[in-house]
Every structure is written in C-alpha cells, then in structure tokens.
Amino acid sequence: MKTELKILLVSVLALTLTVSGCYYDNEEDLYLGSSTCDTTNVTYSTSVAPVFAGYCNSCHSGSSPSGNIKTDSYSSVVTNITRIVGAINQRSGFKPMPQNGGKLTSCDLTKIDIWIRKGMLNN
Ligand code: HEC
C-alpha cells in the first residue's frame, strides 16, 4: 500500500473516532441536563423564592415595584399568582416576564407549578 493511502486511511479513522466521541459526549450532557431537575422536595424557600430572587426581584421589590408586584414578598406572590403564572409562561394577554430576559427554564417553571399545585405553602 502506498504511504499516502495509509496516511489517508488513518486520518479518516481518527476523524471518525473524534466525531463519534463528541457525539457521545453531547448525548451524555443532554441526558444529565434533563435528569438534574430535582422536583422531589419543592418548597417556597428552596425552590420558588430563589428563582424570583435571581430573575425578578431586581425590578419587583422595594417601595415602587414594577407592576405593583413584589416578587420578594410571599403574600404579594400569592395575591398576584394568576398574573405571575401568565407572565412567566408568556401566555397571551400577559406581559412576558422576565422583562428583557429569556424565558425561565422549564425546570424552574415546573417547580413553581408544583409549588402552586401543592397549595402555595409558605414553607
Ligand atoms: C427588568 C425589570 C423586570 C424584571 C427583571 C422582571 N419584571 Fe415583571 N415587570 C416589569 C415591568 C416594568 C412591568 C410592568 C409592565 C407594564 O405594566 O407595562 C412588569 C410587570 C409584571 C407583571 C404583570 C404582568 C401582567 O400582564 O399583568 C408580572 C406578573 C411580573 N412582572 C412578574 C415578573 C416575574 C415573575 C419576573 C421574574 C421571572 C419578572 N416580572 C421580572 C419589569 C420587570
């Protein structure tokens, strides 16, 4: 076999292994990503309040909160829950929130949904 041909074959083999190696890694990342949404112990203080703190409180707290909704206050969140759910799920008829930001992750939305269905406890 000609040397050039051998080099070509080895290169193709190496490239194939590299590409399939990357593909395998990606699949693993996707799998890990979907399995890290822990919804076993959803509470207000550990699952819901941190999401609002990270994405909402910068505009929705203090003495003149945007939309007159304080997302750093449990009672304000409960009082305004219909508007909050509409806004974060970006349903028509509601202002999409967070304003000027991307939609919350499906994991965060799921946790908030579970908290609501469990009775919106102040836990
Ligand atoms: C950059 C500032 C900003 C951030 C961050 C933000 N908001 Fe808002 N939000 C506003 C403003 C301003 C309004 C009032 C919009 C208006 O009335 O035109 C508003 C309105 C709302 C409303 C009323 C919507 C309606 O249609 O009745 C809700 C509910 C709300 N925000 C919830 C949230 C939640 C929950 C988050 C976090 C996921 C969030 N916002 C993040 C600025 C923000």
Fold topology:
Blueprint: H1 3-35, H2 44-55, H3 74-79, H4 81-88, H5 106-117
Helix pairs in contact: 2-5
The structure holds heme C (HEC).
The site of heme C (HEC) has 21 residues, from helix 4.
Keywords:
mainly alpha; 123 residues; elongated; 58% helix; 2 domains; binds heme C
The count of DSSP E runs of length 2 or more, i.e. the number of strands, is 0
Overall tally of structural domains:
2
Structural class based on helices, strands and sheet pairing? mainly alpha
Rounded to an integer in angstroms, the radius of gyration calculated over CA atoms is 23 Å
- How much β-strand is present in the residues? under 5%
Low-pLDDT sequence parts: 17-24
Distinct small molecules: heme C
Count of discrete alpha- or pi-helical segments spanning 4 or more residues = 5
In round numbers, the mean pLDDT is: 85
How is this structure best summarized?
This protein has 123 residues and is an all-alpha fold. It has helices at 3-35, 44-55, 74-79, 81-88, 106-117.
